[in-house]
Design brief:
- The chain is an alpha+beta fold.
- The protein has one domain.
- It has two helices and four strands, in the order αββββα.
- The strands form two sheets. The chain has a two-stranded antiparallel sheet.
- α1 runs antiparallel to α2.
- The radius of gyration is 21 Å and the shape is elongated.
- The two termini are about 20 Å apart.
- The model has no long low-confidence stretch (mean pLDDT about 90).
């Protein structure tokens, strides 16, 4: 029973880092660069199962393509001689879906921590 808080805590950490990555991706969806550089690369969290009953961990991060997408905006200050700029290739709808999943996962793990805490407190009250 004492493992519940540790396992849920590892889930909280994973989902918090997932939320951080998604929010960073969403904040940079309209970041413009010149065609001579790479576009903002979306970050994706890689989760890994822990050994035994130890929860889940962030194994690393994967990054999107720096190629991005070209847009013709000749009036933009970063436009090249042909009038093109580079935007990141981030699907905002997919990021919103990821945001909702990460938020729900975080809420579920927080609820597990609360329930475990209540159970521990009830067990201590029995001993009095």
């Amino acid at each position: 029973m004492f493992d519940a808080i540790g396992i849920a805590g590892s889930g909280l950490t994973l989902h918090r880092k997932w939320l951080d990555a998604v929010s960073d991706n969403m904040a940079n969806v309209n970041t413009v660069t010149g065609t001579d550089g790479d576009a903002f690369q979306a970050r994706y969290v890689i989760a890994q199962e822990g050994e035994g009953n130890t929860g889940v961990y962030v194994a690393g991060a994967a990054y999107g393509d720096g190629e991005g997408r070209l847009a013709h905006e000749p009036d933009h200050p970063l436009a090249d001689e042909d009038g093109y700029v580079r935007y990141p290739d981030i699907d905002l709808a997919a990021q919103m879906g990821s945001l909702i999943m990460a938020q729900r996962g975080y809420q579920a793990n927080a609820a597990v921590v609360d329930r475990a805490k209540e159970s521990y407190q009830a067990a201590l009250q029995i001993g009095r």
